[in-house]
Amino acid sequence: MQYTFVSGSQGSSPRLILIFSGWGMDPHPFSGLRRPGYDIAVVWDYRSLDFPAYITEGYDEICVVAWSMGVLAASASAAHFSRRLTLSVAVNGTMHPVDDRLGIPVAIFNATLENLTERSLEKFRMRMCGGARNYASFMETAPRRPLDELKDELRVLGRLAEDGLADERIWDHAVISDGDAIFPPANQKAAWADRTRSVSIVRGCHIPDFQELIDHFVMNKAVVERRFERSNATYGDNAVVQREIADELAGLIARNFSSPTPVMLEIGCGTGMLSTPLLALADRLGGSLELWDIVDSRPIAGAAFRCADAETAIRELPDSSCSLIASASTIQWFNSPVKFIREAMRCLKPGGMLTISTFATGNLVEVAQATGCFLPLIAEHEWRKAIEGLGDIIACHTRRKILRFTDPVKVFRHLKSTGVNALSAKESLLRSLDRYPREADGACHLTYLPIFIVLRKK
Question: What is the pTM of this model?
Answer without folding.
Answer: 0.91
